[in-house]
Design goal:
Helix content: 25-40%
Structural class: alpha+beta
Largest sheet: 6 strands, mixed
Radius of gyration: 22 Å
CATH topology of the largest domain: Nucleotidyltransferase, domain 5
Strand order of the largest sheet: 1-2-5-4-3-6
Strand content: 15-25%
CATH architecture of the largest domain: 2-Layer Sandwich
Number of domains: 2
């Protein structure tokens, strides 16, 4: 059976539990997905760093760390990997870690709609504007309705062999992640600290990010179309010397212009 599991090229941290297989490539986009420990010794804080294009695990952490230090750690690793999209599971003590990330003013924290009882991917917008109006909440909420979705996405990726896992720790957890009655969870005596953030990351990549990009492409296409039509069919009004170098501006008053790219 083919396997991509191999020893990391570097082990970092005081406990040596940050394993790295690939250093950041500044031409790539990454995502960091984290699960925060309850701090009772029964589970671990963990995260994956995923290459969004190739769906390859490039780094991983699993260890004991308090919520504030873990938040700082996540900001550090996310910044290192090109300001990666940072997705933190927000159940229980996850909020303490998320608050530390917000206090550090990290610019690429994942938000989701809190007014939905289930996940509506059409509204998974990562946009720093109007979060309050859109009723967005930081992090990912694993609920009775979202859990089956992320587990199903995890199953689909492995069946299609579309994800590359390089960590034996993650593989070990996957082997002990089973169905108990109608719920997928770790076998008794084992944990799923690496499995759940991996499932969340795969779901976010395959739904929220894809739909967000499609929305951005649609807006850009619409604006390009408006610019083309106005300059082509109405040269006397919109053409000539009034054609602007930046098509993504809107005239405000007689002399001012507003850049509307924030809509993206």
């Amino acid at each position: 059976m083919d396997t991509y599991v191999k020893d990391p090229i570097e082990k970092r941290g005081i406990d040596g539990n940050l394993w790295i297989w690939e250093y950041p490539d500044y031409n790539k986009s990454y995502m960091v997905i984290a699960d925060v420990s309850r701090g009772d010794g029964a589970d671990y804080s963990a995260f994956h760093v995923i290459d969004l294009e190739t769906v390859t695990q490039v780094a991983e952490y699993k260890g004991m760390m308090n919520t504030k230090d873990f938040g700082n750690f996540l900001v550090s690793i996310s910044t290192e990997y090109n300001n990666a999209l940072l997705v933190v599971e927000n159940a229980n003590v996850g909020w303490a870690t998320i608050q530390q990330i917000i206090d550090r003013d990290y610019p690429n924290l994942f938000y989701m709609s809190k007014d939905l009882k289930y996940v509506d991917t059409q509204r998974q917008l990562h946009n720093k504007y109007y979060r309050e109006e859109r009723k967005m909440v930081a992090g990912f909420s694993t609920t009775a309705r979202t859990r089956p979705l992320i587990i199903s996405k995890l199953d689909a990726y492995f069946r299609e062999k579309s994800v590359i896992i390089q960590s034996r720790r993650t593989i070990d957890e996957l082997f002990t992640f089973i169905w108990k009655t109608s719920r997928a969870e770790a076998m008794k005596g084992y944990n799923d600290d690496l499995v759940i953030p991996l499932a969340i990351g795969l779901w976010v990549r395959d739904t929220a990010l894809r739909l967000r990009q499609e929305g951005q492409d649609l807006i850009k296409s619409s604006l390009d179309s408006i610019t083309t039509q106005t300059t082509e069919f109405n040269p006397g009004i919109y053409g000539g010397t009034d054609v602007r170098e930046n098509p993504y501006t809107m005239r405000v008053g007689e002399d001012d212009e507003e850049d509307i790219r924030w809509l993206f």
